[in-house]
Amino acid sequence: MKAPGKPRMLWSRRIWLAVVLGLLVLAAAAAALMMSISARPADVVPYPTVTGVLGDHLQELQKSVAP
């Protein structure tokens, strides 16, 4: 014969395990988010010099997308 408190203890352990695993998932997601956010701005890459009409269009494009 099973003890009457045993099924309740099993559910209690499952809930505790689910809470701990949930907290671990949240901590891992927070760590990944913090690592992906960079405090410093991205490096500015100098574009190669292009002459002629193409160079003019590239300069206009660069100015139009500059922040």
List keywords for this structure.
67 residues, mainly alpha, 67% helix, 0% strand
Q: Secondary-structure map with pairings?
A:
Blueprint: H1 6-36, H2 52-65
Main beta sheet, described? Answer: none
Helices and strands, in N-to-C order?
HH
**Helix proportion of residues, in percent?**
55-70%
**What is the general shape?**
rod-shaped
Distance between the termini: 73 Å
Q: Report mean pLDDT, rounded to a whole number.
A: 84
Computed over alpha carbons, the radius of gyration is 29 Å
Q: Identify low-pLDDT runs.
A: none
Description:
Helices cover 67% and strands 0% of the residues. The chain is mainly alpha-helical. The chain has a domain at 1-39. It starts with 5 loop residues before the first helix and ends with a helix.
In short:
This protein is an all-alpha fold. The protein is 67% helix and 0% strand. It is rod-shaped, with a radius of gyration of 29 Å.
